[in-house]
């Protein structure tokens, strides 16, 4: 394994590969299949190379390599895929770790001085203008829609662990527990499982009207919601759970049953060949059919395909992507004081819920076990 550099740039000593838990498996089929999918894009467009710059595209293509430092910052690398090999350009203070712990062995790494320009190096690596990622955003999204067996296994494991963390933390919660206490416990568990907490939300009873409740010091009160979006090996698990401390009211039980019915309608419409804009129409009509009114969809996004982005993409009236087998989804219908959200996989047998913890109470809805509110 050797780190190379473009002419005129400083070169790092070639480090010795050290086997670690984070090491990417270079020998499997996943990498070859993904590279072939990208080469097919080059064939269709008549280009010789493709420049990848987003975290979503690069982590998918490289099998989950972590190419960030700050979760809020841009990736610390750029990847040029040409017909011969893959070139990764990164700063000299990042290259050694990436080579030793993150990247497939056949990626050629070009270190750039930390004060230098990755774009300048890229311009030297490609004799012709590379295809820009933004111009084939849809094609790349299509390429990562159908998950490979190794991806399904990794994704299912992450989702099970996230669901288990929510069970552990919310089972120990009490009405006086602050929202930030819930978020802190969930964040610690996500990090301990080797994942990154991209989103941690929590609302107690007094803040239940907020659809995206960043946690505060307020106590949970009699009822609360917690949301986790956690990323590991580039894949994002999205899960929502509710807890209640003094029994339910008839109105709460009714609203929870109706939002689960909306979700069941969405699941029924999520079949191979369906278009996302068509599913969006089902969402519109389902809210009205189940007593939430025709405009509820306007108050929060409804979810969509999942995997290497929180939603890939969010479904709208203009997203005409077609649903394919082995595609992951996170739908999240919501109403006043209610929301339901799990990460699922579309299989040959139908919807398979990935974010499952058998300890959490469930109810059967249209043949699937769906989460209830945990009552303590």
UniProtKB/TrEMBL annotation:
Record-annotated Peptidase M24 domain positions: 158-348
InterPro entries reported in the protein's UniProt record: Creatinase/aminopeptidase-like, Pept_M24, Peptidase_M24B
Organism encoding this protein: Arthrobacter vasquezii
Biased composition (Low complexity): 11-22
Short name of any one Pfam family annotated for the protein: Peptidase_M24
Chain intervals for the UniProt region annotation (Disordered): 1-29
UniProt name for this protein: M24 family metallopeptidase
CDD domains: APP_MetAP
């Amino acid at each position: 394994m050797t780190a190379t550099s473009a002419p005129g740039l400083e070169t790092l000593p070639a480090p010795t590969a050290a086997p670690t838990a984070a090491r990417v498996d270079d020998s499997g089929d996943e990498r070859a299949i993904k590279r072939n999918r990208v080469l097919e894009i080059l064939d269709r467009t008549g280009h010789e190379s493709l420049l990848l710059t987003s975290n979503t595209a690069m982590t998918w293509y490289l099998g989950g390599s972590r190419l960030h430092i700050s979760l809020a910052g841009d990736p610390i690398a750029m990847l040029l895929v040409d017909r011969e090999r893959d070139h990764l350009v990164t700063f000299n203070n990042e290259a050694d770790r990436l080579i030793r712990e993150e990247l497939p062995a056949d990626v050629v790494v070009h270190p750039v001085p930390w004060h230098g320009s990755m774009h300048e190096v890229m311009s030297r690596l490609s004799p012709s203008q590379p295809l820009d990622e933004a111009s084939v955003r849809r094609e790349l999204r299509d390429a990562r829609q159908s998950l490979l067996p190794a991806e399904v296994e990794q994704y299912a494991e992450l989702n099970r662990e996230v669901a288990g963390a929510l069970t552990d933390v919310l089972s120990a919660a009490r009405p006086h527990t602050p929202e930030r206490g819930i978020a802190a416990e969930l964040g610690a568990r996500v990090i301990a499982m080797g994942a990154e907490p991209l989103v941690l939300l929590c609302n107690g009873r007094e803040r239940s009207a907020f659809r995206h409740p960043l946690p505060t010091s307020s106590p949970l009160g009699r009822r609360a919601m917690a949301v986790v979006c956690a990323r590991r090996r580039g894949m994002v698990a999205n899960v929502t759970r509710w807890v209640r401390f003094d029994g339910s009211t008839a109105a709460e039980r009714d609203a929870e049953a109706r939002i689960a019915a909306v979700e069941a309608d969405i699941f029924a419409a999520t079949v191979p060949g369906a278009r996302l804009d068509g599913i969006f129409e089902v969402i519109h009509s389902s809210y009205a059919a189940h007593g939430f009114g025709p405009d509820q969809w306007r108050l929060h996004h409804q979810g969509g395909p999942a995997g290497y982005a929180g939603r890939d993409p969010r479904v709208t009236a203009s997203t005409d992507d077609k649903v394919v087998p082995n595609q992951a989804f996170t739908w999240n219908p919501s109403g006043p004081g209610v929301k339901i959200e799990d990460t699922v996989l579309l299989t040959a047998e139908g919807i398979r819920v990935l974010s499952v913890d058998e300890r959490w109470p469930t109810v059967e809805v249209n043949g699937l076990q769906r989460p209830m509110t945990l009552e303590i």
